[in-house]
Amino acid sequence: MSTSAPQKIADKTRGQIVEAAEKLFAEKGFRAMTLRAVTKAAHVNLAAVNYHFGSKTNLMRAVIQRRMEPINAERIERLNSLVAEHSPEPLPLEAIFEALFRPLFEHATTEKGNDHTFMQMVGRALTEPADFMRNMHREFFAELSRRFLTELKRSCPELSEQALQLRFYLSVSTMLGTIIEQVRLESISGGKLSGKDLDKICDELTAFVVAGFKQA
């Protein structure tokens, strides 16, 4: 069944609002991102924002959902494929972290190069008020973390629960820091390395994290 004309208009308006909110959130953060600024950037009125989202928090949820749901779905798909391929044996650590890291880095790249708005958005999300991000983490990342921790535990049975969770936290933090701060790579390396090569950076990140995770 084809989508009706009014529905197409509504979907377009919703998309404009989410895209405008994402850019403003990336630039200013949640607290400084006003709905008035969103309506101006999206070329809509406040009634449209209230109709589609109801609140600023719901709008922010839609922004994160649009970006993270496809990434997380790909992560789970890759992990499921690995489990099916290696069953009943535990998964290689390299494969687990490749499944976790690669989708994020691939989605941070566009035909025109690195998606700096997305990278800024990730960085902003990490500095937002604790309650705000705690709720978002619970919805978008808690189950994902549980799935990956389950496979990491099978692959590293010698690690205590505390060590496993701490190393996973450090691994994720390294991933996020890398995607946010990749622009510094060129200055740190004196121009010998480029932050634009996210594929290569992801390869090195995976090797680095796996080596640290394996340490007794």
Counting DSSP H or I runs of 4 or more residues, the number of helices is 11
**What is the CATH class name of the largest domain?**
Mainly Alpha
Largest sheet: 2 strands, antiparallel
Question: Strand fraction band?
Answer: under 5%
Structural category: mainly alpha
Uncertain regions spanning at least 5 consecutive residues = none
The name of the CATH superfamily of the largest domain reads Tetracycline Repressor, domain 2
Separation of the first and last Cα atoms: 58 Å
* H/E series: HHHHHEEHHHHHH
Examine the coordinates and then state which fold CATH places here, giving the name of the CATH topology of the largest domain. Answer: Tetracycline Repressor, domain 2
Second-tier CATH architecture of the largest domain = Orthogonal Bundle
Helix content range of the residues, please?
Answer: over 70%
Give the spatial strand order of the biggest sheet: 1-2
Q: What would you call the shape?
A: globular
Note the quaternary state here.
single chain
Gyration radius (Cα, Å) is 19 Å
**Number of individual domains:** 2
Write the layout of secondary structure elements.
Layout: H1 5-28, H2 35-42, H3 46-52, H4 56-86, H5 93-107, E1 109-110, E2 113-114, H6 116-126, H7 130-140, H8 142-155, H9 161-181, H10 185-188, H11 198-214
Antiparallel strand pairs: 1-2
Helix pairs in contact: 1-2, 1-4, 1-6, 4-5, 5-11, 6-9, 9-11
